[in-house]
Design goal:
The protein is of the alpha/beta class. Helix content is 29%, strand content 26%. It has helices spanning 54-61, 84-87, 105-113, 122-128, 144-156, 174-189, 201-207, 225-229, 277-290, 304-312, and strands at residues 8-17, 28-38, 42-47, 69-74, 90-93, 162-166, 193-197, 210-215, 218-223, 239-244, 260-265, 268-273, 296-301. This is Daunorubicin/doxorubicin resistance ATP-binding protein DrrA.
Length: 317
């Protein structure tokens, strides 16, 4: 891919870690073939299960470790060999914050702002992220959500061109979550390239302009949310209808052989696939013939979580 239109490009990334005790000093290949790209003015999500390779991919993208194969270009430069000039153009928000526990929020932000040529106004970040209410509290005494908001402010204070966000809504209450989401959308509209990782797929579906899914160290899917959730073949679940009724119903005679139908739990039923208006008519006619009055009915489009589970499986890793 051409790097001219991207703030981050990763092509054919390979990364080995080790040696591992008990394996005769052999290296373990944790990234085998990852492609990823992010544009300015977009939120690009990197999704994967625990152990899929997200953290290692981002460590290579941020210049925290070198690639063992493939290429990584952050703002057109190899981040591993880059100097302070590149790092000053990049903001990183880590999930655990990486914040000094004895510091106080506003004092820390002012200290960080003095390290940059054109920082964002500290007062603006304090007001926008609601940091004023705990401005003089030691970081070790802050709640998880307060630390998340402060970590985001620290990532933004240098006025970066590229922003890495690791689980930005973790631990946030609904009000704080909304504030953070609105800020992310504003930063995107200002032209920042935002790379987002999260286990909350609803967040990714809401925020991301483009999504990459990796599994077992490889890129397995990419596209916009609409592209990924669209029905692409006969097995794709483009829509899911769920209803509750008396347990033990047999949907085999409902006249929907082209759809996936079944009782997922006692009295809970699912109809999935390319559901059309005619299918709804058949289902309601079947209810009428059988004298069934559902307790609840819900029809939804295929979600990013559906896609993720189809690609990575449902087993806990």
């Amino acid at each position: 891919m051409s790097t001219a239109d991207y703030c981050l490009t990763i092509e054919g990334l390979v990364k080995d870690l080790g040696p591992v005790n008990g394996l005769d000093g052999k290296m373990i290949r944790v990234i085998a073939d990852v492609d990823f790209a992010a544009r300015p003015g977009q939120v690009t999500a990197l999704l994967g299960t625990n152990g899929a390779g997200k953290t290692t991919t981002l460590a290579c993208a941020q210049g925290l470790m070198p690639a063992d194969g493939g290429t990584v270009r952050l703002l057109g430069t190899d981040p591993w060999n880059a100097g302070a000039d590149l790092r000053a153009r990049v903001g990183v928000m880590l999930q655990d914050g990486g914040l000094p526990p004895s510091a106080r929020p506003v004092a820390l932000l002012k200290h960080l702002s003095r390290m940059y040529v054109s920082p964002r106004p500290v007062e603006e970040l304090v007001e926008r992220l609601g940091i004023g209410s705990f401005a003089s509290t030691g970081i070790r005494r802050l709640s998880g959500g307060q630390k998340q908001r402060l970590a985001l402010a620290c990532a933004l204070v240098g006025n970066p061109e590229v922003l890495f966000l690791d689980e930005p809504s973790a631990g946030l209450d609904p009000q704080s979550r909304q504030i953070v989401f609105e800020l992310i959308q504003e930063l995107r509209d200002e032209g920042l390239g935002i790379i987002l990782t999260t286990h909350l797929l609803d967040d990714a579906q809401r925020l991301a302009d483009y999504v990459y899914i990796i599994d077992d160290g490889r890129t397995v899917a990419r596209g916009t949310v609409a592209e990924l959730t669209a029905a692409s073949d006969e097995t794709a679940r483009s829509r899911v209808l769920t209803f509750t009724a008396e347990p033990g119903l047999d949907l085999a005679d409902a006249g929907l052989p082209h759809l996936e139908c079944g009782e997922t739990a006692a009295g809970h039923y699912t109809v999935a696939g390319g559901i059309l208006p005619a299918d709804l008519a058949r289902l309601t006619a079947w209810w009428e013939r059988r004298g069934i009055m559902p307790h609840s009915v819900h029809l939804a489009s295929r979600t990013l979580e559906d896609v993720f589970l189809e690609l990575s499986g449902r087993d806990i890793r």
